[in-house]
Amino acid sequence: MELSFASYNIHKAVGLDGRRDPDRILAILREEEAVVVALQEADRRYGRRISALPRQAIDDHTPYRLVPLAMTPDGIGWHGNALLVRRGIEVVAASPVPLPMLEPRGAVCAQLRLAGRLFCVVGMHLDLSGLRRRRQLQAVKAHVARSGQLCPTVLMGDFNQWSRQGGAMRIFETEWQALVPGLSFPSRRPLAPLDRIVASQEWRMIETGVHQSALAAIGSDHLPVFARLQLPPGA
């Protein structure tokens, strides 16, 4: 079974032109071929934390549906982290992942089933501090293990990790495949690989990359990243 996963920090749908344009973000999502998308900064940060992407528009204008994780009635995510899955994928379980933090950060976890195969996805937006990023990634790994979700797993999001190797990513040196799809920030002239995808050892990596398009170049300050992964029989 071959699946494509994507992660996108949508910057609350505010593009480089200064306009908040949910329709543009939805169009970029339609350009993707991912079966699961992790969004960061999907809700506004203050007040009622209103979603930057209207729920009805997601339902009507994309092939995705929301994983139920909203922390407020008007939002779609947990501390701005949301998960979208293609229709036809069963959501078995979903939960927020508490992270140690000084500023609002978070992660979300979903256990999914497709064609009888169970797999787990975690979306996250990590701290700017390297020490706190390491602690947050340790919390994510512990949550996956504690929840009994020891199935093929994909972790993805805005890791805020500038270096390709080292730093907080050292905790993935064994038992995980830490993928660096490419330079994703800032979107107009990318300099840093802030957005990452990490896969458990059951997955076979087929392709990773950064989604480039005219819309993606101005839709947010980040570019979407993706990974095509294969789950061999019996994994």
Description:
Helix content is 16%, strand content 32%. By secondary structure, it is of the alpha+beta class. It has one domain (2-230): Endonuclease/exonuclease/phosphatase (Deoxyribonuclease I, Chain A). The strands form 2 sheets. Strands 3-4-2-1-12-11 form a 6-stranded mixed β-sheet, with helices on one face. It has a 6-stranded mixed β-sheet with strand order 5-6-7-8-10-9, covered by helices on one side. The longest helix is centred in the middle third of the chain and has 17 residues, at 130-146.
SSE layout and pairings?
Elements: E1 2-9, H1 22-31, E2 36-40, H2 55-61, E3 64-66, E4 82-86, E5 90-97, E6 106-114, E7 117-125, H3 130-146, E8 153-158, E9 176-179, E10 195-200, E11 204-210, H4 216-219, E12 225-230
Parallel strand pairs: 1-2, 7-8
Antiparallel strand pairs: 1-12, 2-4, 3-4, 5-6, 6-7, 8-10, 9-10, 11-12
Low-confidence region ranges: none
Strand order of the largest sheet: 3-4-2-1-12-11
**How many beta-strand elements?**
12
Count of helix runs: 4
